[in-house]
Design a protein that fits this description.
Oligomer: single chain
Largest sheet: 3 strands, mixed
Strand order of the largest sheet: 3-4-5
Helix content: 55-70%
CATH topology: Catalytic domain of cyclic nucleotide phosphodiesterase 4b2b
Structural class: mainly alpha
Number of domains: 1
Length: 288
C-alpha cells in the first residue's frame, strides 16, 4: 500500500513539480546507465536501483507521508534518482570534480587507488557536484531546491546527518524541507537494496568474475531473495547460494543494523519524524 505514496502526493499537491520530476527522469536514465563504462561487473547502479531506493523510501516513511510537504516529496524523489549519478560521470567531469575535491590526503593514504576506486569512494560527492553543474538540465527550479537535492543525494553515505549546517531544516516557498530526515530515509533505503535483483543475470555474467571480493558480493546479493520492510522490522529472506555465504549474510545484517540505528538517531534528533523500524532480521528459506 505504500509503494507510490511520495509520487502520488507530489502529483496531487504540485502538478508542476511532478512534471518537472518526470521530465528529469526521462533525461537521466541514459546518464545512469553510463556507470557500466566504469564498472562493467559492479552491482547495479542504473535507474532500476534508483527505483528500488524510491520504493524502500516509501516503505520507510509509511503513514508519516501526510507530514511531508510537496517540496520534501520532490527533493526526496529527485535525490533517489540522482544519488548515484556520480558513478557514471564522463572523464572530463571526473577530472574537474577530482580537482575540486582536493584529494591530496586521500591519495597519500591510498597510493594504490585508481580512478574506479576513487569514484566508488567519493561517488556521493561526485553526485553532488554533478547535480550542481547540471541543475538546469534537470529543470530544478531554484538554487534552494538544488541545494536540498544535492545534500540529500550526498547524504546517502558517509556524511554527518547530525550536522545542522550541512543538513538544515530549510524553507522553500514557505514550506519546510527537513534535509536531515530525508537523508536518513535515503541512506537506509540505499543500504537495504541488497536483494538478488541488484545483479540480475540479464545484466551480468557472474561466471566471468575473477576478483574474490566481487564473487562474494554477487553471491551475497543472489542469496538474499527479498527484502521486506514492515512497520517495525526489516527482513532479509535468504536462500544461501552456498553455505559459506551465511557468514557474509550475518556481516551484512550487522552493517544494515548499524545504518538503521544511525538513521533512527538522525531522524529523532534532527526532525519531528521517526524511523519506526528498529531491527534487521534474517529469515532463512527452505529451513537453511
Amino acid at each position: 500500500m505504500n509503494e507510490f505514496l511520495l509520487e502520488t502526493k507530489l502529483r496531487e499537491e504540485s502538478p508542476d513539480l511532478h512534471q518537472r520530476m518526470k521530465d528529469s527522469i526521462f533525461v537521466l536514465q541514459k546518464m545512469l546507465d553510463s556507470f557500466y563504462t566504469w564498472f562493467p561487473d559492479f552491482t547495479d547502479h542504473s535507474v532500476l536501483h534508483s527505483m528500488d531506493v524510491l520504493y524502500f523510501s516509501n516503505q520507510i516513511i509509511g503513514e508519516q507521508i501526510h507530514k511531508l510537504g510537496s517540496w520534501e516529496c520532490y527533493v526526496l524523489i529527485m535525490a533517489c534518482y540522482l544519488h548515484d549519478i556520480g558513478m557514471g560521470i564522463s572523464r572530463k567531469d571526473y577530472e574537474e570534480f577530482v580537482e575540486k575535491l582536493e584529494l591530496t590526503s586521500y591519495r597519500k593514504a591510498h597510493p594504490e587507488a585508481d580512478e574506479t576506486k576513487i569514484i566508488r569512494d567519493f561517488h556521493h560527492e561526485f553526485s553532488g557536484l554533478y547535480i550542481q553543474k547540471y541543475a538546469d538540465l534537470f529543470d530544478i527550479p531554484s538554487k534552494e531546491a538544488a541545494f536540498a537535492i544535492i545534500q540529500v543525494s550526498r547524504g546517502h553515505r558517509k556524511t554527518d546527518l547530525l550536522d545542522e549546517k550541512e543538513y538544515p531544516t530549510m524553507e522553500i516557498e514557505g514550506e519546510q524541507v527537513r534535509t536531515a530526515f530525508l537523508s536518513a530515509v535515503i541512506r537506509l533505503a540505499d543500504e537495504i537494496d541488497v536483494g538478488s535483483d541488484r545483479n540480475p543475470e540479464l545484466l551480468f555474467d557472474t561466471s566471468k568474475l575473477t576478483k574474490q571480493v566481487d564473487i562474494d558480493a554477487f553471491g551475497t546479493h543472489e542469496s538474499i531473495r527479498t527484502v521486506t520492510v514492515s512497520n517495525r522490522e526489516i527482513i532479509l529472506s535468504v536462500r544461501l547460494k552456498e553455505p559459506r555465504f551465511e557468514k557474509l549474510i550475518e556481516d551484512l545484517q550487522g552493517k544494515i543494523q548499524a545504518t538503521l540505528d544511525y538513521c533512527r538517531e538522525a531522524a529523532e534528533k534532527r526532525s519531528d519524524f521517526r524511523i519506526f523500524q528498529d531491527v534487521v532480521k534474517v529469515k532463512y528459506m527452505d529451513g537453511i
